[in-house]
Amino acid sequence: MKALKVLTGSVALSCLAAVLALNLAPVPQAMANGATAQAEKKSGTYEPSVGQEGKDVVWVPTAQSLVNKMLDMAKLTPSDILYDLGSGDGRTVITAAKRGTTAYGIEFNPDMVELSKRNAEKEGVSAKATFAKADIFESDFSKATVITMFLLPELNVRLRPTILKMKPGTRVVTNSFSMGDWSADQTESVNEDCRSYCTAYLWIVPADVGGTWKLPHGDLVLEQKYQVVSGSLKSGSNAAAISEGKLDGDQITFKVGDTQYSGKVTGEAMEGVARTGSGENRFQATRAK
Ligand SMILES: C[S@@+](CC[C@H](N)C(=O)[O-])C[C@H]1O[C@@H](n2cnc3c(N)ncnc32)[C@H](O)[C@@H]1O
User: Fold this and answer.
1) In whole numbers, what is the pLDDT of the chain averaged over residues?
2) Checking CA distances to 45, which of 77, 86, 145, 261 falls within 20 to 30 Å?
3) 3-state DSSP call for residue 236?
4) Which residue out of 57, 68, 152, 196 has the highest number of ligand 1 atoms within 8 Å of its CB and is therefore the one to mutate?
5) Percent of the chain whose predicted confidence (pLDDT) is above 90
6) CATH number belonging to domain 211-287
7) DSSP annotation of 136
8) C-beta separation of 171 from 204 below 8 A
9) Is 92 a pocket residue for ligand 1 (Cβ < 6 Å)?
10) If you count DSSP H runs as helices and E runs as strands, how many of each does the chain have, helices first?
11) Which fold has domain 61-204?
């Protein structure tokens, strides 16, 4: 896998993705090309090259129009804390900071970190945009409410267990690449000023709801696959399957027969409203140990 890191040109990531998809060994020529793609330092000014080597993935910048779209999809606000994992030249962090958000970039390449700091300075957002030279796999980004990434599918999947332990409602937006069998909640593409890698995916970290929940009128048994919820409501000897079960962060919705449940999950407690026709009742449930 390490040899895959070195590719060159604007097609670097697609070559990389294609190689991964086909599960082929990378060709030596690609490595040779990569050697010529190293960034040059000219009289103290660092100029990165698209496709230059990175620790786990090469550098290809996200088109500014897609950066804007990604932050729109995350519904970024000034009260968010954004982390861009593998922050490149800092463009996503700087764009977030310009929207008033406190934003952090984690980037392994020290030259890119210094470049990002200079870019933030030029844009007048140094106070809100912070960059660290670090490995994303050894970094703590648990305080993030929004995560952005332009990595590779296998790297996204490596990060997935950590992301799923984050606070429900945390938004994750990637450029182009999936999160394995965790389906995206939203997909958007841009056409303007973008020739490749023009699609973004959003995921919302779901609350953990698997288990048996005690309701006054029975046991709600929930099974969960990411944001999709299934299971049944057991009352005495009757069991009714739940349908349309879904999580949006800590908000759960599901149906049992004609009754629509909408609630909020807070750790081991769930509360909300059950509606049948025009009737409405509040419900509370506690997860059984
Ligand atoms: C495809 S670029 C994306 C840059 C930026 N996020 C953007 O969207 O424009 C991926 C970046 O991740 C960095 N990177 C690769 N592996 C890394 C790692 N393990 N830790 C931190 N940064 C890494 C690379 O140096 C590169 O700048």
Assistant:
1) 88
2) 86
3) coil
4) 57
5) 83
6) 2.40.128.20
7) G
8) yes
9) yes
10) 6, 17
11) Rossmann fold (3.40.50)
Residue with CA at minimum distance from ligand 1 atom 13: 86
What the block records as the tokens of 76 is 């970024």
> 187 with 257: CB under 8 angstroms?
no
**How high is the pLDDT of residue 44?**
58
Of 71, 136, 173, 177, best ligand 1 pocket probe by most atoms within 8 Å of the beta carbon: 136
Q: How remote is the C-alpha of 37 from its chain's centroid?
A: 29
In this model, does residue 282 exceed pLDDT 60? yes
- Pairwise CA distance, residues 263 & 231, whole Å: 16
Measured torsion, CA atoms of residues 55, 58, 61, 66, in degrees rounded to the nearest 10: -90
- Residues carrying CATH 2.40.128.20, the chain: 211-287
Cα–Cα distance for residue pair 194/233, rounded to 1 Å: 49
pLDDT above 70 for 109: yes
